[in-house]
TrEMBL record:
This is G-protein coupled bile acid receptor 1. Keywords: Cell membrane, Disulfide bond, G-protein coupled receptor, Glycoprotein, Membrane, Receptor, Transducer, Transmembrane, Transmembrane helix. The lineage of its organism: Eukaryota, Metazoa, Chordata, Craniata, Vertebrata. GO terms for cellular component: plasma membrane. The chain crosses the membrane at residues 12-35, 47-66, 81-103, 124-146, 191-217, 250-270, 290-312. It is found in: Cell membrane.
Length: 342
């Protein structure tokens, strides 16, 4: 029996994906319009972030298809490939864009005076191509033959007597026999290579760059505090509160990074562990409600990362905030005029 025939499964996927997709899509559009309206933000770092927002927007659109990738469907070979390859390509491109944004900002912090000389700034079209073309090529490998698709008529007998008896029902049965599952599109070697060769290194690189940035910030904070102490000793003054404020800001930064990791990365890590376990265990575990919930929350939580980075920057949200403020003032002004007229 097809798991999609279960109305409870459809309702669960609908109630989980529709709110997340709506928030992701409209928030990305909000930030994209803010960057496009502010000419001061038209530079290479923000172009990389804009590419990440586009990938995140596409992730929000395809989010409703990701839980259904673990279910069986009655599709032919071409439609089955599209239903599995396209969401996989969008997710990989989102992951590659996320790594590129972290890498570009990492270079700006590690080498603030020479970051414009690195290849990501000098060869921006090439850098942008590296975050879209490799995911497309890898995700398209099942379309070029790396799949486990078996035609439904290959196991049938080709005797003349049997073909005469089944000729009347061959058209109807061929459609029913074509069951589309992830195991027919993605071989186990393909899945293991994607997880261990692409997803895991990308996550580790982001964690390593974030940890390195926090370590550099900690070292710079210690140097600043030492300079303040030396100045206070020369002037024979009591230690100021500025050092305490700097330490408090650094503590808030570490807490924000840790909270982001717990909220956005931990659900996805749990989802990946469940995926590998389900791949070894069978299809029943992948069609369970818990797996569907974790697939929605895991991918959805990762898609929130660009929104956190974008909404935390006032330059990205300032143009839209001004428009909203003008609309609110006009609406209030219209209400006041109506009250005066009454």
């Amino acid at each position: 029996m097809d798991p999609l025939d279960n109305p409870n499964t459809e309702k669960l996927i609908f109630y989980l994906t529709v709110p997340l997709s709506t928030i992701i899509i409209f928030s990305n559009l909000f930030i994209i319009i803010g960057i496009a309206c502010n000419r001061q933000l038209h530079n290479t770092p923000n172009y990389f972030f804009l590419s990440l927002l586009v990938a995140d927007l596409c992730t929000g659109i395809t989010l409703q298809f990701i839980p259904r990738m673990s279910l069986e469907r009655q599709l032919d070979f071409k439609h089955c490939l599209v239903m599995y390859i396209f969401p996989n390509f969008i997710f990989l491109s989102f992951l590659f864009n996320l790594v590129m944004v972290h890498y570009e900002r990492y270079l700006c912090i590690v080498s603030p005076l020479h970051h414009s000389q690195f290849w990501v700034h000098r060869c921006f079209p090439l850098a942008l191509l590296t975050v879209w073309l490799p995911p497309l090529l890898y995700a398209s490998l099942p379309a070029f033959g790396w799949n486990n698709w078996v035609e439904p008529n290959t196991n049938k007998s080709f005797d003349s007597n049997e073909t005469l008896l089944r000729s009347s029902t061959s058209r109807n049965s061929s459609k029913e026999d074509e069951v589309c599952t992830y195991k027919q599109v993605f071989p186990k070697a393909f899945i293991y290579l994607e997880v261990c060769g692409l997803v895991l290194p990308a996550m580790l690189s982001i964690v390593a760059m974030t940890g390195r940035v926090l370590w550099i910030a900690h070292k710079q904070l210690q140097n600043i505090c030492k300079l303040h102490r030396a100045v206070d000793r020369l002037q024979q003054q009591q230690p100021s509160d500025h050092e305490q404020q700097l330490n408090l800001r650094y503590a808030k930064c570490v807490a924000a990074v840790s909270l982001t990791f717990l909220v956005c990365w931990v659900p996805y890590i749990i989802f990946q562990l469940m995926s590998v376990t389900a791949l070894q265990g069978g299809e029943r575990s992948q069609s369970s409600s818990l797996y569907i919930i974790m697939s929605c929350t895991g991918i959805g939580s990762m898609a929130v990362i660009p929104l956190i980075l974008g909404l935390a920057n006032k330059q990205y949200t300032e143009p839209i905030s001004r428009v909203m403020l003008k609309l609110r003032n006009r609406w209030r002004g219209g209400q006041n005029n109506r009250d005066i007229a009454l």
